[in-house]
Amino acid sequence: MTDFSTSADTLVVPCPAKINLFLHILGRLPNGYHQLQTVFQLLDYGDTLTVRQRQDSQLTLSPDLADVDNKDNLVLRAAIALRRFAGYQGGADLYLEKRLPIGGGIGGGSSDAASTLLALNQLWQLNLSLDTLASIGQQLGADVPVFVHGATAWAEGTGEKLTPLSIPSKWYLVLRPNCFVSTGEIFSHQQLTRQDAPIKIAAFLEGGTGNSCQPLVRKLYPEVDKALIWLDKFSPAMLTGTGSCVFASFDNEDAARAVLAQRPEGTEGFVARGVDLSPAHTALGIA
Ligand SMILES: C[C@@](CO)(OP(=O)(O)O)[C@H](O)COP(=O)(O)OP(=O)(O)OC[C@H]1O[C@@H](n2ccc(N)nc2=O)[C@H](O)[C@@H]1O
Ligand SMILES: Nc1ncnc2c1ncn2[C@@H]1O[C@H](COP(=O)(O)OP(=O)(O)O)[C@@H](O)[C@H]1O
């Protein structure tokens, strides 16, 4: 068993979750991806990644995730992509403490990948810029760049055109219905609405925006529909990303926790605070 106790050659990095405070789909790009407008709100809750220098060139990842093969894990894929890009010869032991539900629209895999890039860039002293790390990350997933740049942001394009945004801090309850929604399935669905008109940041701040995937996802997944109806009784509820998680905001932690404690059987969830800056950046001392 690998010993991951903290030492000079070891970094421990949070991998925060995100929620989409709104999500509009403006159209389809020639490569099949969708042109979006969204706000990525970072949360102070997520997975934790530990990286440790090895004296040889091996890359190891532990423990195995129940639903993802190690070779497909975005942590290992990010490490391999970074090493290839930088022409670096060394290795590392990677340990991922997974807390975030998989396939929930809260960006867990993308955040794990981004924290891997940020941490190994420091551990291996590669000195690559955030822009370079973001473009390596974008090949792995559309959500990786926002986590690399590490700020709550207004996003356009496929999520890579980012404008940092300061949102008044709120507490969020994120509820995960008992189902998994594939992002690819929703984006390739015939009935997805893809014709939102572009809006300005001011229009989002004035309110009244929503998630354009929500009508389709709640129709295809009754568990999501039920979760939205239940949470909406306490505070206006919305789908994040393509789901399956739904969320609502609360003025304080106690109010959010009181609702979480009553959650319907079969659902899971967590309470987290919205943050402007990524806890990964704070941990690594990135300005
Ligand atoms: C739409 C969002 C909003 O946050 O949904 P969630 O994944 O968070 O639910 C994300 O940007 C998703 O990011 P991510 O989950 O990294 O997507 P990727 O792995 O790059 O893409 C998965 C699949 O979704 C489709 N896809 C994804 C993003 C996008 N802008 N247009 C698309 O059409 C593509 O078919 C792609 O094959
Ligand atoms: N470290 C990881 N954590 C979560 N999912 C991962 C990871 N590595 C690869 N994946 C794959 O990425 C897909 C998307 O996972 P995730 O990021 O949790 O969801 P979403 O994109 O809905 O927020 C999953 O289907 C999973 O197989």
Structure write-up:
This protein has about 290 residues and is of the alpha+beta class. The chain folds into two domains: about 10-165, Ribosomal Protein S5, domain 2 (2-Layer Sandwich); about 170-275, Alpha-Beta Plaits (2-Layer Sandwich). About 30% of the residues lie in helices and about 30% in strands. It is built from ten helices and ten strands. The protein has helices at about 75-85, 110-125, 130-140, 145-150, 185, 200-205, 215-220, 220-230, 255-260, 280-285; strands at about 10-30, 35-55, 60, 90-95, 155, 160-165, 170-175, 240, 245-250, 270-275. Strands 1, 2, 3, 4, 5, 6, 7, 8, 9 and 10 form a ten-stranded mixed sheet that branches. The longest helix has 16 residues, at about 110-125. It binds 4-diphosphocytidyl-2-C-methyl-D-erythritol 2-phosphate and adenosine-5'-diphosphate. Its EC number is 2.7.1.148. Belongs to the GHMP kinase family. IspE subfamily. GO terms for molecular function: 4-(cytidine 5'-diphospho)-2-C-methyl-D-erythritol kinase activity; ATP binding.
